[in-house]
Amino acid sequence: MKAKIGITEQNTEAVAEQLAKLLADEFLLYTKTRNAHWNVTGDNFHANHIFFEEQYRQLDELIDSVAERMRKIGHFAPATMKIYLELTHLTEYSERTNDGLGFMKDLLTDHESIIEFLRGNITPFAEKYKDYGTSDFITGLMETHEEMAWMIRSYFR
Ligand SMILES: [Fe+2]
User: I need a labelling partner for 114 at 20 to 30 A (CA). Which of 8, 28, 66, 148 fits?
Assistant: First the structure.
């Protein structure tokens, strides 16, 4: 059944298209963070292992909230790896060093890229597409990524 929530279908479609890209980015970042959790080696192994676990758990919740936001505005959420790899702005690891800071640097770049993407969509979602709910939702999401990015950035002086 169609969602009758006071936003045109054309507008919810445009918003859902951006949310699908975001979902793909979150999924990739989640996988990359799990990789870091599993494969990190070196000094501070245990602390890093736990740190990455905290982060992937947070990302797991974000993924769910993005997909469910798509359902709330009347669209289906993409849920295959193939589609995620087609939609994502992020890249998978090209080289493997397995050291904590190497993983952190890469993950930080991805968080910052998601933050920029979200920031760029807050105003259009509200003003262009009249979807104030999703605009508010991604504002909160951006703040969560800002916090996660800060946690990672703090490992660097
Ligand atoms: Fe684990």
Answer: 8
Q: With helix as H, strand as E and coil as C, how does the chain read?
A: CCCCCCCCHHHHHHHHHHHHHHHHHHHHHHHHHHHHHHHCECCCHHHHHHHHHHHHHHHHHHHHHHHHHHHHCCCCCCCCHHHHHHHCCCCCCCCCCCEHHHHHHHHHHHHHHHHHHHHHHHHHHHHHCCCHHHHHHHHHHHHHHHHHHHHHHCCCC
Quick check: is 48 in a domain? yes
Distance of CA 2 from the midpoint of ligand 1 (Å): 40
CA of 3 to the centre of ligand 1 (A): 39
CA of 53 to the centre of ligand 1 (A): 7
Distance 119 CA to ligand 1 centre (A): 32
Structural domain boundaries enclosing 90: 25-153
Q: Please indicate whether residue 2 or residue 78 has the higher confidence score (pLDDT).
A: 78
The model's pLDDT over 79-131, given as tens digits with 9 standing for 90+, comes to 999 999 999 999 987 677 899 999 999 999 999 999 999 999 999 999 999 99
Whether the predicted model's global pTM rises above the 0.85 cut: yes
Ligand 1 geometric centre to CA of 97 (Å): 19
